[in-house]
Design brief:
The complex is a heterotetramer, with 2 copies of chain A (365 residues) and 2 copies of chain B (388 residues). Chain A has 365 residues and is an alpha+beta fold. Chain A has 11 helices and 9 strands. Chain A has 3 domains: 103 residues, Acyl-CoA dehydrogenase/oxidase, N-terminal domain (Butyryl-Coa Dehydrogenase, subunit A, domain 1, Orthogonal Bundle); 97 residues, Butyryl-CoA Dehydrogenase, subunit A, domain 2 (Beta Barrel); 148 residues, Butyryl-CoA Dehydrogenase, subunit A, domain 3, CATH 1.20.140.10. In chain A, strands 1, 2, 3, 4, 5, 6 and 7 form a 7-stranded mixed beta sheet that branches. In chain A, helix 7 packs antiparallel against helix 8. The longest helix of chain A has 37 residues. Chain A is globular, with a radius of gyration of 20 Å. With 388 residues, chain B is α+β, with helices and mostly antiparallel strands. Chain B folds into 3 domains: 84 residues, Acyl-CoA dehydrogenase/oxidase, N-terminal domain (Butyryl-Coa Dehydrogenase, subunit A, domain 1, Orthogonal Bundle), CATH 1.10.540; 109 residues, Butyryl-CoA Dehydrogenase, subunit A, domain 2; 136 residues, Butyryl-CoA Dehydrogenase, subunit A, domain 3, CATH 1.20.140.10. Chain B is 47% helix and 14% strand. Chain B contains 12 helices and 8 strands. Chain B has a 4-stranded mixed beta sheet with strand order 1-4-5-8. In chain B, helix 8 runs antiparallel to helix 9 and helix 8 packs parallel to helix 10. Chain B is globular, with a radius of gyration of 21 Å. The chains are: A alpha+beta (365), B alpha+beta (388). At the A-C interface, helix 8 of A face helix 8 of C.
Chain lengths: 365, 388, 365, 388
């Protein structure tokens, strides 16, 4: 029973903290958020060089052969720094669908691809589809083609490749396509550092990576990994907002005292501290369960995502409140953490959706 | 006790309802649940129309263009505006804050000059109270005015000023005696925003849109007759303004909340969330809260009608409204599920709720933070000891 | 549009306030709560003399011919004073089922009866029964007899007569029986000033007061009147707890200051004030709607009961908290208000049950 | 990071699990979800059994009867006690507060005299800190002790003292220098509760049952060798006690919450409330919170194991536990619906939840009010300015 990261993992954390604070301070993130691309493509090469793309990819495919626990450290730190770029969509979503596609993993580890996952269609938004899909995969020569439209695809314009949930002749399956072969339209997204878009496939060539037999289990793995990753990001973002709040109330004076001396202010900061610490514990537990393939992983990940998403939102809201007017302006960084926290909170449904899964595990359906 | 309209209230209501049906801007209702919000030109035109029909300043004295109607007519007016989802008058600050303060403390000349123009929308007003260094602690303000013969010369910076970019006039608090105690060296000025040396810069809020402004004053000359009340006695005058900001305005805000509540019901129907028991419980909770808030306002109003002083319950309005509006707009996003992040054209209703939700976070900060308002209720309404 | 009680109603309020504070101060209520009877029977005669029993009963049956708005004033004040006795069960529950039974109303107005309503059976607890009832009414000579067992009957041992929901040959109906003809067993109830009991009927003679045709509408009237009355009582009890809290924090000192000078304390008291004021507005609105037979009455009453019940519970909880240890003792009166507030909150289901009715009115079922 | 048991943890767990299965009092599990709670005789016997099997004082030094096991064994112990729904050791105050304080500050003689007896349950302890006039402001205490040769003579009154009616010993704070500053004239005594002049009177709590007591001291003579730490330096010693009360005890309280959580699930199943989506959401919320609290405790524990100092997260345990327990017990009543008012024999599970719900209101008051604990986190953990 040991609830601490290893020394190596802590070194990775320091590395990641330096990376985001040196390259992606609040001002830089704000600048990038206003650009058309929304991110700094050169950061991908830097992160590849640091070995981050292949962290959990086996050595034979050019990765480092570590697991999700190492990636967990990065998710928390990239959340803290609000890193804008397709790391979440690549590593938490698409990469989890590629264990049966060694060539894809090789490309990813070498920095040759950036990925995302497309699962949502008009009217259906759940990550685990109950039935059918209007996006169709058809056999064509020795390969496949995809036709259909996917919505709310994270970081669609930053990705080079996309894993698609589609209906094939044998039932649901997963295919990978090149983004350049499809049409991509980005939508206005509240969180400008993690945008959503539509991808339209029209006879787009694709390669199958999971068939009807294992699509469900693959998507379950994607879902729990995404939940855990988002919980960690939420902890990072919520922690950053909490730190801004704590620093501000120590120095801002009103009525002759720092406002942190008023309980109506200080107790809000305490509640953020408590919320984020509990969220952190849940997120680490979920990360470990996912990394180890523990049987509690789906429940732990759902629990962590629901709690951490809400805790991060609340931490940002309290931070805005104790900052007063300045925290409500566009020029202050707080709203960026807030929008990321809300992005996380809304992913695959707000907290009550994940709590419904927890309830099913506890009480039956 | 009677919740029905008295005969003259009923006739006022029916006259107003017909008028609204005939006069609302074309396509307004269809437009309203979208992000398209506030357009100064449309708003000015609408304000004028309302004024000419006699619906602005219902409770103001007749000699200043008002209708001297009982306060209950104002309540009827707000209810019908909600029912019609009608746009608001442009002169929120003038009608809710500057006007009532001028009525209380102004000279005849000031009243004659400004009040009718406020009602007609010909004068748009803004407020110059807060400064970067003085938020909740308003009396620590540092914008100074120095007497120069028959003028004050103003230098300093104000912030969080809605409408300043289109305003003609400003109610401005300045320090005129730097040696006096904090609350005793302040003067309340009426400042022409078209004066030389006034510079307005928009401040973007979280959603990216401007609404508030900074105002910079550099050697702005304000004639001495534009002092409201006495020199160095501006703090008391400012208290009148704040009382109206948190009281009367809170009343109007409750009407806005009712509009939003109705829109949430529509949203739940459109998305199918109306079948989710968790959403149903929260919608019902909001509806119940809203009735509680509305009827609490009415109770305070009855006390005002009967005694001339609003009931202490009125202090609740702005505080509770702001927290309720935050919960309601968040509920709207939750109803949208994963689509909650889609803003603008691609969002449901053009990102109406995305804007409203972000905007709502300012509600507990502007016009008295929730922390300050709870202190005020604790000390002034409940008689608890001071906490500062 | 007028949201104030009339001068006459306010005089009734003063009368009621004097009655409860003179005769039923906190100490007296505490004494009575520990007795076997649980109340002071002589108070009934005093209240009858004040004309309270017949307030809403027509003059031809010996009443005063007023309406529910006058009774509303009493419910609030009796809640403030935690009056122990069957006023709620008589006036808010049973009396509403007796409009078609003028002789019963006459007896009540003259102080000749104290009533309650018996509707719950094992396994079914809703005030509006969906179907069936195991308690049976059978014709017997020129009258009726009842057989069956009712649970959770309020103030069962203090009542002389009971209105019973039972199944007759034509369907559900309402009958009145004498309590002395039935077997009554009182159950331990958290609120010792308003106890619940079981009534066992075994061929008990009874008189029919509503038949299958109007039982549903009668019970709907009972329900909305009970909700409004309980909302008013909750306002009274919550107000009393709030006042105890406000007084305490003005005088109790810690760290050299009255504790009301700490925002963590004073803001709790403010939140109680807000909660009770909103509850009061809802309760008055509901009372007026019920008194006037307004079409919004069922919705207003459900809204008021759900909000006021929860506001009163919260007011008591905050009062206990700011009192510290002393507020948690049996000897302090606070727990009695708390238990009454909880009694109200649990009546016919906690707040979410009434909110479900509100939601149905707003959104359809 | 590894949430699995290390090999020696696994073997400890399996040994303990078998032991509990064999040794739990007959019918205990069937009895436990009823109001029948705490019986001093059963509890003493059980405590002795636990002690003799070596399960008490797992982390205490061997020379005082402990097992010198790593702290993780204590966590395993608590988990297994929850799993078995086993009764607790009678010596809550001795094990959690008096014992650790004596280990930190006691003389060898004091350690030898008391520690083993605390573990075995032969000495039951109580706490004499709070007074009617000094609740959160503990240092304002007025119970005084005057030196008389080799004794202190104690006079005064303490309150909120659990177990005092069956206690053999008391950790008592007294004022020994009335002229010193508030925190500097306090001495920490170990007092034999069987001494002349000690009078214990039960205080009934809201539910009507006694649990706390008042203790009156009239000329009680306490030998000078029963001073813990130095004379007039009792405040620092008391801080050690409070740290353990809020830290270690908070850890154990989380285990209790887990037992309660499991019982709520059972209750929801028995009543059919498990099908209500509102109840399902709240149960899930509680379960999630509970895991968060439990693993936060484990994180603090890991820090303690690695550095010898518990992590700052530990300060959360008692505060969050108390508020969570209040919500959970209220949820249980709501699950019962209109039957929630039925207490005692006629209630579901003999009024178990009715008692638990009322009892829970004390949780945010005893052992540091939530207000004080938030101040402590603000000031000591987050470094915010003092708010008093």
């Amino acid at each position: 029973m040991d609830f601490a990261f290893s020394e190596e993992q802590e070194m990775l954390r320091s590395q990641a903290r330096s990376f985001v604070t040196d390259r992606f301070g609040a001002e830089r993130v704000a600048q990038l958020a206003e650009t058309e691309a929304g991110w700094d493509e050169s950061s991908w090469d830097a992160m590849t060089e640091l070995g981050w793309m292949g962290l959990s990819i086996p050595e034979e495919q050019g990765g480092a052969g570590f697991g999700f626990l190492e990636e967990a450290v990065l998710f928390e730190e990239l959340g803290y720094g609000l890193y804008p770029g397709p790391y979440f969509s690549t590593v938490a979503l698409a990469r989890r669908a590629l264990d049966g596609a060694p060539e894809q993993l090789k490309r990813l580890a070498s920095g040759g691809s950036r990925l995302t996952l497309a699962w949502i269609e008009g009217g259906r938004a759940k990550l685990l589809p109950e039935t059918g899909m209007s996006t169709q995969a058809q056999e064509s020569g020795d390969g496949w083609t995809l036709t259909g439209e996917k919505h709310l695809v994270p970081d669609a314009s930053a990705a080079t490749d996309v894993v698609v949930v589609a209906a094939g002749p044998e039932g649901l399956g997963l295919w990978v396509a090149r983004c350049e072969d499809a049409k991509i339209e980005m939508d206005p997204t509240m969180d400008r550092t993690r945008r959503l878009g539509r991808i339209i496939f029209d006879g787009t060539p694709a390669e199958q990576v999971a068939g009807a037999g294992d699509v469900r289990s693959t998507l379950e793995r994607v879902q729990m990994t995404a939940y855990a990753a988002l919980a960690l990001e939420a902890v990072g973002a919520g922690q950053a907002a909490f730190e801004l709040a704590a620093d501000h109330v120590k120095t801002r004076e009103q009525f002759g005292k720092p406002i942190g001396a008023y309980q109506a202010v200080s107790h809000q900061v305490v509640d953020s501290y408590i919320g984020i610490e509990l969220a952190r514990s849940l997120a680490y537990w979920a990360a470990w369960c996912v990394a180890e393939g523990d049987e509690r992983a789906p429940m732990a990940a759902a629990a962590a995502k629901s709690f951490a998403g809400e805790a991060a939102v609340a931490s940002c809201e309290r931070a805005i409140q104790v900052h007063g007017g300045i925290g409500f302006t566009y020029e202050h960084p707080l709203h960026r953490y807030y929008k990321r926290a809300q992005w996380i909170d809304s992913f695959d449904g707000f907290g009550s959706v994940q709590r419904a899964s927890v309830a099913t595990a506890l009480l039956g359906s | 006790m009677d919740f029905r309209d008295a005969p003259e209230e009923a006739s006022f209501r029916s006259e107003l309802r017909s008028w609204l049906e005939e006069n609302l801007p074309d396509g307004w209702r269809e437009l309203s649940p979208s992000r398209t919000r506030w357009n100064a030109d449309v708003s000015r035109e609408w304000s004028k129309k309302l004024y000419e029909a006699g619906y602005v300043g219902l409770t103001w004295p007749k000699e200043y263009g008002g209708r001297a109607a009982p306060y209950t007519h104002q309540a009827v007016f707000l209810e019908e505006m909600v029912r019609a989802e009608a746009p608001e008058h442009i002169g929120v600050i003038g009608l809710g804050m500057a006007g009532p303060t001028i009525i209380s403390h102004g000279t005849d000349e000031q009243k004659n000059r400004h009040l009718a123009n406020i009602l007609s929308g010909d004068e748009v007003w803004c407020q110059g109270f807060s400064e970067p260094g003085s938020g909740s602690d308003l009396a620590s303000l540092r914008t100074k005015a120095v007497r120069d013969n028959d003028h004050f010369v103003v230098n300093g910076q104000k912030v969080w000023s809605s409408f300043a970019h289109i305003a003609d006039w400003c109610i401005l608090l300045v320090r005129t005696d730097p040696d006096a105690k904090k609350h005793q060296g302040i003067t309340y000025l009426l400042v022409d925003m078209h004066s030389d040396g006034v510079d307005v810069r928009p401040l973007n809020q979280m959603s990216g849109e401007p609404e508030f402004n900074e105002i910079f004053f550099s050697d702005v000359r304000v004639p001495i007759e534009n002092v409201l009340g006495e020199v160095n006695a501006g703090w008391g005058v400012a208290m009148t303004t704040l009382l109206h900001e948190r009281g009367t305005l809170g009343f109007a805000l409750t009407s806005r909340l009712e509009v939003a509540m109705n829109k949430v019901v529509t949203l739940a129907r459109e998305t199918g969330a109306e079948r989710d028991p968790l959403i149903r419980d929260r919608i019902a909770r909001h509806w119940v809260e809203l009735q509680g808030l509305k009827f609490t306002n009415y109770r305070a109003l009855t006390t005002l009608v009967k005694t001339g002083v609003p009931g202490p319950e009125g202090s609740i309005a702005k505080l509770f409204w702001s927290e309720s509006n935050q919960r309601l707009t968040k509920l709207a996003l939750e109803i949208m599920g994963p689509r909650a992040q889609l803003d603008g054209d691609e969002g449901i209703w053009d990102g109406y709720w995305q804007y409203q939700q972000l905007r709502s976070r300012g509600n507990t900060i502007e016009a008295g933070t929730s922390e300050v308002l709870r202190n005020i209720i604790a000390e002034r309404v409940l008689g608890l000891p001071r906490s500062r």
